[in-house]
Structure formats: structure tokens, C-alpha cells
């Protein structure tokens, strides 16, 4: 009972403290130019029944992001290729460029960690990527990264960078989310709700902070998970066609968080929610592979937000790998899990 009392005291204090913070109360600055809606950035190619799209994926190398040869330098890999979609045969294939991935470098870090890039998105005619250590949002230009915005953890009034994990476009605004679970100790004891905030960015680089505890709880309840069970998110996409949120969780567990067991708590659900998270539905979408979890996904252009291409990653006993797959929202497999590399790529976009 003592531990329960402590938890309830901490929870009540945190709820009071966050309620006193400024959350999305100011309006956006006025902008004089229209939003650049170009997407993808590269023209698609059409041949017979197939459509070919340029794609890119970005690496999160964790501690290996620190350059072994240059001081104060952190690296990531930007791998490019083509996605071929055949709507007649209901199939997808991937062709990766023969040349090695582009090495992106930056001197910026937080406590000796940096360039652990977690997502890619085209926004306002630019390609953005997100460092889940420093909180930096970079623009990728001419195979180089240029800092644009810095996101801070929790309500924004902290000294820790936001752990960006998923990002999507909604009504010309960027929504950037983190893990979507309570921050806990390695043994699962509650510490804060900081990873359950969402950052909203406009085309001027202004940031608003939204507390999404209720939304994240609604998503995990769709498959019967309640605290101390958890769900970890690394991919979320808003569909402007369906006016729905779509989530492919990376981890799902009805038990309390455990750092070791988490490696085999992969998830195979597609969860959808209306704009208000009042109607939330879940369906099993692919075969469950406990060591694999979704890290990023995008709707294939021109499919009415019905066909998805996704990255899955595994981190098990110190080894990492990335797989790519494609499927429809009703579960029809267009491309089975296919190994990309024995590195961890966490961001995917049509470029």
C-alpha cells in the first residue's frame, strides 16, 4: 500500500503541475505565404500497370552515431531507393540504390549523443528529420542537415530534448509524438508523463505543446491495455482522406514495463481513431513477430490511404535489423517482411 500511496501522490502532483503550465494558449503568428503542398518531392514514374516512387529511410544508430574518426561529430545514414506499386497485381517491390547510403553529419548533441534520427517527413516543400536525443529538427538539403527547430521534453519548460518518435501532417501543421507511454524506471515504476506530450509545429517553426495522456490511453485501451501495461509508439499518421489517426504500435504489453522483456513485446495491431479519440478501433494487421516492432509507416500515394508501406526493426541482445513490408488497411499483404540491413532505420518517406 505504501508504494501505491506514493504513486498516487506523485500522480496528483504531476497533474496539478502540468495544469499550471502554458499549453497551446497563444495563437500562431500570421504568415504571408501559402503552404507548399508538393508531395512527394520527386515526380512519380508510371510504366504499364505499375507506379514507381522515390523513397528514403533514415538511420538511428544509437550510441554508434558518434563518429569514430571525427571529434564532436555525429552521423546517420540516409538510404534511398524506389518503391514499385502495382495496383492490378496488388503487389509492392523495393529497389535500393546501388551506391552506399549518404552519410549525414552534425556537431550537435545532448550529453554526448546526437543524430539518432527517428523519422522523415516532407513538410512545406522540405524534407525534415528528427533527432530523438537532442530534440533538434533538421532540414535535409543537398544531402546535408541544417537545424530548424529544437523541441524540448514534456511541456517544453525543460532542459532535456524531446524524444521524437513519430511525426505526421495534419491541416498544414506537424504533429510530433514521442513513445506515448509513461516515463518509468527500468523496472516499470512511474516517473512522469513527459513522453505523452505532443509537439505541434507550424511552417514558421513555432511550437505548441499538447498533453496527450487521454489520447494515448484511449489508443491502448482499444486492445485491452491499462496501466501498468503499456504501448510504445514510433509511428503515427493522420489520414486527411479518412479524417482518422492511424497508429502501428512498436510494443504492446499488458504487464508493467521491464527493460529486458520489452525486446520481445512486438505488436501487430493497426489502431485507428477519430479526431477526438472518441471512436477508437483496433485490428490485427500482420503476423506477430515478437522481436519485430513498427518504427515508421506511410500511406502509398494514390491509394486513398488504403495501402501502407512500413519499417519494422528489431533490437535483441545488442543486435539490430530493419525490415520493410507493405499491406492494406484490411490486412492484405502486398510485400512480406523483407530484410533491409542489419542496422536500425527508423524513418521512412516518399521523397
Automatic annotation (TrEMBL):
It is an enzyme of class 3 (hydrolase). Its cofactor is Ca(2+). Ca(2+) binds at residues 118-119, 165, 234, 295, 346. It catalyses: a ribonucleoside 5'-triphosphate + 2 H2O = a ribonucleoside 5'-phosphate + 2 phosphate + 2 H(+). Its EC number is 3.6.1.5. Keywords: Calcium, Hemostasis impairing toxin, Hydrolase, Metal-binding, Platelet aggregation inhibiting toxin, Signal, Toxin. One of its GO terms (biological process) is proteoglycan biosynthetic process. Residues 1-20 form the signal peptide. GO terms for molecular function: apyrase activity; calcium ion binding; GDP phosphatase activity; toxin activity; UDP phosphatase activity. InterPro entries: Apyrase, Apyrase_sf. It comes from the Eukaryota. Belongs to the apyrase family. This is Apyrase.
Amino acid at each position: 500500500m505504501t508504494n501505491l500511496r506514493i504513486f498516487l501522490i506523485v500522480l496528483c502532483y504531476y497533474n496539478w503541475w502540468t495544469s499550471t503550465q502554458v499549453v497551446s494558449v497563444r495563437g500562431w503568428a500570421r504568415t504571408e505565404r501559402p503552404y507548399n503542398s508538393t508531395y512527394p518531392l520527386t515526380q512519380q514514374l508510371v510504366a504499364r500497370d505499375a507506379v514507381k516512387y522515390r523513397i528514403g529511410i533514415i538511420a538511428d544508430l544509437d550510441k554508434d552515431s558518434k563518429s569514430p574518426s571525427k571529434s564532436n561529430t555525429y552521423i546517420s545514414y540516409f538510404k534511398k531507393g524506389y518503391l514499385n506499386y502495382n495496383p492490378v497485381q496488388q503487389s509492392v517491390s523495393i529497389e535500393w540504390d546501388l551506391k552506399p547510403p549518404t552519410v549525414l553529419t552534425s556537431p550537435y548533441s545532448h550529453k554526448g549523443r546526437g543524430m539518432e534520427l527517428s523519422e522523415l517527413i516532407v513538410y512545406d516543400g522540405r524534407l525534415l528529420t528528427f533527432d530523438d536525443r537532442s530534440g533538434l529538427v533538421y532540414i535535409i538539403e543537398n544531402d546535408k542537415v541544417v537545424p530548424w527547430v529544437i523541441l524540448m521534453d514534456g511541456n517544453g519548460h525543460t532542459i532535456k530534448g524531446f524524444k521524437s518518435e513519430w511525426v505526421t501532417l495534419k491541416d498544414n501543421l506537424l504533429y510530433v509524438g514521442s513513445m506515448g507511454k509513461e516515463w518509468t524506471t527500468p523496472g516499470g515504476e512511474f516517473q512522469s508523463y513527459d513522453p505523452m506530450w505532443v509537439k505541434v509545429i507550424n511552417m514558421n517553426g513555432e511550437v505548441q505543446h499538447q498533453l496527450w495522456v487521454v489520447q494515448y490511453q484511449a489508443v491502448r485501451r482499444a486492445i485491452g491495455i491499462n496501466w501498468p501495461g503499456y504501448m510504445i509508439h514510433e509511428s503515427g499518421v493522420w489520414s486527411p482522406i479518412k479524417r482518422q489517426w492511424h497508429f502501428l504500435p512498436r510494443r504492446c504489453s499488458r504487464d508493467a514495463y521491464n527493460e529486458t522483456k520489452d525486446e520481445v513485446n512486438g505488436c501487430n495491431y493497426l489502431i485507428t481513431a477519430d479526431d477526438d479519440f472518441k471512436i477508437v478501433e483496433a485490428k490485427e494487421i500482420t503476423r506477430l513477430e515478437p522481436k519485430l516492432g513498427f518504427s515508421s509507416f506511410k500511406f502509398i500515394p494514390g491509394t486513398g490511404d488504403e495501402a501502407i508501406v512500413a519499417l519494422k526493426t528489431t533490437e535483441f541482445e545488442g543486435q539490430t535489423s530493419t525490415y520493410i513490408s507493405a499491406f492494406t488497411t484490411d490486412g492484405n499483404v502486398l510485400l512480406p517482411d523483407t530484410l533491409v540491413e542489419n542496422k536500425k532505420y527508423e524513418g521512412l518517406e516518399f521523397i
